[in-house]
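Interim report, section 4.2 (structural modelling).
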Amino acid sequence: MKISINRQYFIEQLNHCLKAISPRTTLPILNGIKMEVKEESLVLTGSDSEISIEITIPTEIDNEEILEIEEPGTVVLSGRFFVDIIKKLSGDFVALETNDQFQTKITASQSEFNLSGNDPDQYPLLPEVNDEESVVLPSAVLKTIITQTNFAVSLSETRPVLTGINWQFSEDGIKFTATDSHRLALRKLQGEQFNMENMNAIIPGKSLTELNKIITDSDEEVEIHFSQNQVLFSYGNMRFISRLLEGNYPDTSRLFPENYETKVTVKNSEFYHAIDRVSLLAREGGNNVIRMTVENGSVALSSNSPEVGTVHEAINTGKVEGEDLKISFNSKYMMDALKAINDDEVSIEFFGTMRPFTLEAAESDEVVQLILPIRTY
Amino acid sequence: MKISINRQYFIEQLNHCLKAISPRTTLPILNGIKMEVKEESLVLTGSDSEISIEITIPTEIDNEEILEIEEPGTVVLSGRFFVDIIKKLSGDFVALETNDQFQTKITASQSEFNLSGNDPDQYPLLPEVNDEESVVLPSAVLKTIITQTNFAVSLSETRPVLTGINWQFSEDGIKFTATDSHRLALRKLQGEQFNMENMNAIIPGKSLTELNKIITDSDEEVEIHFSQNQVLFSYGNMRFISRLLEGNYPDTSRLFPENYETKVTVKNSEFYHAIDRVSLLAREGGNNVIRMTVENGSVALSSNSPEVGTVHEAINTGKVEGEDLKISFNSKYMMDALKAINDDEVSIEFFGTMRPFTLEAAESDEVVQLILPIRTY
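Predicted structure of the assembly:
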């Protein structure tokens, strides 16, 4: 292969590709980026066998030449190191030329690198994903969905299905669920157009974290295709493929209680910062447990740590309905849940000291966050 | 004690104080910040017994009330944790009140913290530094001096004096020297006014690193006082005290050779970036050694790493005097030295393949950097 490519554009695409590359891969060739020069394009591939990212670079973008192809060919070059070189070179364009032994010459300005490359035949084939049926979301919507659920996936491999987000399709739309069994995040997306034959898939949280770093907060469409074991996100010049988690996701629909005993409506940001302050002491005491008291229509937060001290916060702007309450919970879970609710006002419904409580936006049930309390006495 | 203090101003001063506090202190009370409320001021002290920082906060700054004192008194409060609380509170002012058992109530807006404090009588006394004789430098000059030398101090405790910077006073001015025995940084400050009776002191590199984070790039004066074992930097409302290193600093004056065999003059930034690129491969190969070749009036850099590849850089804008040369050196030392030379053009003088070489600005000998080459064949 022999090409010349716009250096800044190349760096951006390589950085996307790097997101699929893990330094802890068991297959050494997966440390590399595969570069396949065709007649009219350059295809970059990075993969850690869980996630694969494939980017197609055309010769022109908006009538501006990005890529000049003198000779097609394919090579695999050591990922991070290769990207570091391209970044540190000077000049607008960089030239790449590979010989029969995959030795690759990189030249720009007064610099010349000669790198050992790898045989692309040793690079694993990407999984194929059936392109027939798909659901389409604007990338900004997909970003919000990931942000509102992904934090709640389990970090433990004890129950592997809980490390993923459950996408559950029905006639009403899609339900996205994540839980680590201490708290649960549920996002609903209404709309008949999202029905995909009652598909039910579990996408690894890690894959969605990486996808979220690449897609932008815009109207650009993401086409999502599912096969038996894989999901493909097709976005601009990029194909992002992740394996799906096998197994059955637990039925979480019964977890949501009805008929609250106590309901508190608070200003999201004010409540968040109060929790943040009270949790300072909870953290110093070695755990994140703080206490909330609802009494005579007023709400207070407190925490104490025997060696360090005590803290007390009065919540002024709350509206209280129902019975008095004393409840303890993990402050981190509460802060995560508040961040995931895109609204100035949050309603928290309690069903007694020992039962899970729920958070929703005051005006919408698009997002429901559920948290298990902690028994402290 | 009982005070109310401007929260933002308090945070800034506490952050300065924290720079003296090490989490690895052997004396637990040194994890805390000592707060001494006098009739007209609040004095904050932080110390790790190597460095001590004392900050005096007045009641008013530019006719604006910063501090309101209701009752003097003294307490020691756990450092980082206390500062975190002050940062996360809301409101412009925060109130502090300490009782006889050093229990301290912190209130702002709807928040109330009650922290266990410590008896200030258990806090060690700061070393006394004789204030009589001093040298005065603008803080911007002191910052430059630290930046141009401090990187070259030794990180190993094998020869403790080499972990500090030698300040050598004479009738001509001050010489600042740092060396880890592989490279040396020398900065000269000319001027009779800097003569302090041929004083010779070794200030720990770590202390100067912390000082450098606090002082700003301005004309504000820093008064520097030396005692037998301590140095005091007096800067605005702050007293920064560091212990001095004991022992004799090696005589480095004989290290500087005369009559170069080869002299190369290069553009600083261009040469720096070329070294940076070539060192990418040197680093990948497990060391930082790169080779420089001067031949027929042209300069080139190269490096190779058997598994990875080779790199070659031609340096275009150099001026060459003297003999041809092949020399190898640590690229990191070279990059550190180039950064320390505040000039677009740098002269490098070589005295043969196996002898130390020197870098200076083309137009000034205020800074001299010396590097030992590496034998590679």
